[in-house]
Amino acid sequence: MGETVSLSRRRLLQAGAALGGAMLLPGMSQAVWAAGSDKPELQTVKVGFIPLTDCAPLAIASLKGFDKKYGITLVPSKEASWAAVRDKLVNGELDAAHVLYGLLYGLELGVAAKPQPMANLMTLNRNGQGITLSSDLQEKGVTNLSTLKTLVGQSAPGTYTFAHTFPTGTHAMWLYYWLASGGINPFDDVRTVVVPPPQMVMNMRIGNMVGFCVGEPWNARAINDRIGFTAATSQDIWPEHPEKVLGARRDWVEQHPNTARALVAALMEAARWIDASDDNKRETAQILSHRGWLNTKEQYLTGRMLGEYDNGIGRRWQDAHPMRFFEQGEVSYPWLSDGMWFLTQFRRWGLLKSDPDYLAVAQRINRIDIWKEAAQAVGGIAVPTQTLRSSKLIDGSVWTGADPAGYARSFAIQRIGA
């Protein structure tokens, strides 16, 4: 649909302007789209998800009726692994998915898969992932990155194995960045493997790895099962980092622009509901604990969803950067610099053999146009005037989106040219 506005919608916008520029109210926009050319092209939308706390907007949109408000019915599809999500998105079994930011960008560029034009419709959440180290490491005196560096340095390369969830995924990038910030080369000093999120705890229990990076509730579950402790949160690495996104094939979005807009609006409303109160977060945790979603105990979900952390070895705190879903709508904005950052890490670690056109790739994938239409439909959401934002990471580096090629080469530990 791009910048095209239907006649009925244009008249309503003009009426709003005449009343002082008021935003369209959700009920008004629904009526227009139900009757005019902006009606969603599809009545049902099948959206894949992995059982993680950050699939919450999908659950709430479906169960609280936010999807119906915008003229669609969500059909959530629980998937076993990120590879399954990737394959089903590509072959059309899924219309859209709760998906790793880096997975979407890797698909676009053909990293670890055949190239497939993709679209990022919105960011679903920030923060809330973790790096867990095993109790076996703790018994060896490891309680943080510094003591881990000492142990790894005393051992033959590859002695210790760490797991993440997908080769180009966020968890791989958080794990690599964290290790490297402490002087550990994630490719030369240790071994890394891919394990689906729900299988992390079981694999650590039987000794297949000594550490992993994954989303919640699996870090909290490792503590509860007394097999590990939280060595770092992902927000320790990058406060307010992007995490999961709502991904779709680009051709699906082009064929169903009104459906895409309705889907984003429904998930925005769900995100706003979740973050509106601690009671709503508790209710969300209770919903997610059910068999159809995460199939785990509510207690594993609630604490960290509220930002209440216990690392399992004596430290407790209220996190300044808990998992966020809304934050006045700004969480969901598909910042171009967020997508570009993942490209710099692909380049840093040799997953890309040359520098891409960082900005052009992000502009292609991140559908700010769809996001803006959805934000207008929901109402009360301020639209950022910029597409790049500034962030300071754990090693002191500042990412602004400027000079991405230089940024990728700026790290002491890297594999450019590998």
UniProtKB/TrEMBL annotation:
<keyword id="KW-0997">Cell inner membrane</keyword>
<keyword id="KW-0813">Transport</keyword>
<keyword id="KW-0732">Signal</keyword>
<dbReference type="InterPro" id="IPR044527">
    <property type="entry name" value="NrtA/CpmA_ABC-bd_dom"/>
</dbReference>
<keyword id="KW-1003">Cell membrane</keyword>
<protein>
    <submittedName>
        <fullName>ABC transporter substrate-binding protein</fullName>
    </submittedName>
</protein>
<keyword id="KW-0472">Membrane</keyword>
<feature type="signal peptide">
    <location>
        <begin position="1"/>
        <end position="34"/>
    </location>
</feature>
<comment type="similarity">
    <text>Belongs to the CmpA/NrtA family.</text>
</comment>
<dbReference type="Pfam" id="PF13379">
    <property type="entry name" value="NMT1_2"/>
</dbReference>
<dbReference type="InterPro" id="IPR006311">
    <property type="entry name" value="TAT_signal"/>
</dbReference>
